[in-house]
Amino acid sequence: MIMFASQTPEYTYPTNALLLHRMLQGKHRTITQDSNANCAGMVSAVEQTSRYMQSNPSIWYALVVGSDYSSVNCNTDDEITYPNFGDAAAAVILERSSEQSGFIDSLYYTDSEGSENIMFPACGLSNIYHEDITPEQIRIRWTPFDGTVCVEAAVADMKELLSRNGLTTDDISAFCLSQFSLKNIELIQDGLGLTDEKFIYVGDEFGYTATSSPFIAFQRGVEDGRIKRGDYVFFWSVGAGWQIPTMLYQY
């Protein structure tokens, strides 16, 4: 299975997953699919691919790729997106195994009240060819909002996942969260009553890479030894509008 998660796909058809299949010379018996949950896309894609593999015993390996090319779509006058967004891709391979590890549980929290705060293309795809549409009307439209609104849901969902799986925060080795806002990470940390050593932050190095950002944080945790085989890890991110997946994994 090949799953490609992006909110800025290079093509809408063919699927980008199909192009990856071609480049990798994949087998004919391969599921190829694109997905889009905005900045929450790769967390959602790994979660849904994991659940699919649990229900379909014929899937032994899955490649999940998350990639956004957001900087080119930013309005240069926007003080949030233009200086903050970076571009990067991440990939993980999921393998069917008899080991006691892998996907454990997840929760989704959706609140669509802010669904028009962030829009791209701002004018809508059906309007991009109108003669009176300017480039600025095509780029990302970012209406200012309180970005901390997702914190309470994040803390509540992490606590619920811990409770229903018989774990505590002491059992979690790392929190690989959306890298959009260091403040949000700090607020989640405070809400869980934890110190910062378990919270991996790479946004100051790579910028905000959107869908791939929790997994770039995960890679850093593996590299520096904070995440080892068998460790419990939380993945969490936020998609515009809001769609918020929280996923518990054992590496």
Succession of helices and strands: EHEHEHEEEHEHEHHHEE
- Overall structural class, as computed from helix and strand content, comes to alpha/beta
Unreliable residue stretches: none
Please give the order of strands in the largest beta sheet.
2-1-3-4
Number of strands: 10
Overall shape: globular
Radius of gyration: 18 Å
Largest sheet, in brief, is:
4 strands, mixed
Would you identify the CATH H-level superfamily of the largest domain? Thiolase/Chalcone synthase
How far is the N terminus from the C terminus? 20 Å
Q: What is the count of distinct domains?
A: 2
CATH topology of the largest domain, which one?
A: Peroxisomal Thiolase, Chain A, domain 1
Q: What's the CATH class of the largest domain, please? A: Alpha Beta
Organism: Paenibacillus etheri
GO molecular function, one term: 3-oxoacyl-[acyl-carrier-protein] synthase activity
Domain Beta-ketoacyl-[acyl-carrier-protein] synthase III C-terminal: 162-250
GO biological process, one term: fatty acid biosynthetic process
